[in-house]
Amino acid sequence: MANRAAIIRNLQDGAEKMACAGFVQRLGALERNALLSDACFDRIARKSATIESIYEETHDWNETFYRTLFRAIDISANRRAYEELAQRVPYRIILRTGRAYKEVEALLFGTSGFLASCSDNNDYIRSLKEEYNYLAHKFEISPMRISSWTTIGVRPYNHPILRLSQLVGFLAREEFVMNDLLKCCTTRDVEELFRISASEFWSKHYSSTPSNRASVMPIGREKAHLLGINLVAQLQICYARNTQNSELGNRAISLLCSLPAENNIYTRRWESHGVKIHNAMESQGVIQLSTEYCAHKRCKECPVAGFMLSQANK
Q1: DSSP letters along 142-189, please?
Q2: How do residues 103-150 score in pLDDT, each as one tens digit?
């Protein structure tokens, strides 16, 4: 029998340096895929719990999609602010506007607090403020504090003003139904679903992006892929489980396998230690290992350590 305590101790001592990466790198393709798939399913289960709690609260898949979209549009500094905005302006209110572009724009920018921070010197801003005052009174909506948002240090293409304008374009484009999401089967489908841009007005006048760039700021392919991972596939999995639709659940997993791997601090660390990550299923797996096990030195419970011990004791 291999010395379990010694193996676990060595892994814990080297957790910050990815002490197990060499073992994962040497695994055969089937074993490696099984290991990372299991870690990915653990991550899916954690995310599903959040989505399911939204559905239990709303009993409406469109509203669940709406709130999850706002969560997924920024997974870092401003996530809580987007969540608060989605709760202050629920999807039923978007529907009551008839999805009219200017009304949706006034609601999101006004409620976010960004509209109040804009100068009245511009005719369009004045008209948006008038529209928002009317809608806020009609629907009994109060605006957020501008301090709820983080803008310092945020990359220009992820600036809340640009993301809000992209959300406006998405919500006003067509009726916001789960069918659009459920139909996504491929990376191309995901890219088409999120082929939207910030308006020329917000791109040029009130973003932190230099005005000599493109007149409209589209959601990039990488961001669309992230939405495919964190929104589309996740919603498909939850909906499939709720409706007992195994075919949809299998398609969601296939979608994760077709989407490109994420490029972030976790995936880069694993790849720097020789672990090649081929798709989003695998990148979700290594993110789960990094955040739930390595970061907390939970090597005793880690599936990699379990796999190592089973191999050592053969």
Answers
A1: -PPPGGGS--TT--GGG-HHHHHHHHHHHHHHS---HHHHHT--SHHH
A2: 999 999 999 999 999 999 999 999 999 999 999 999 999 999 999 999
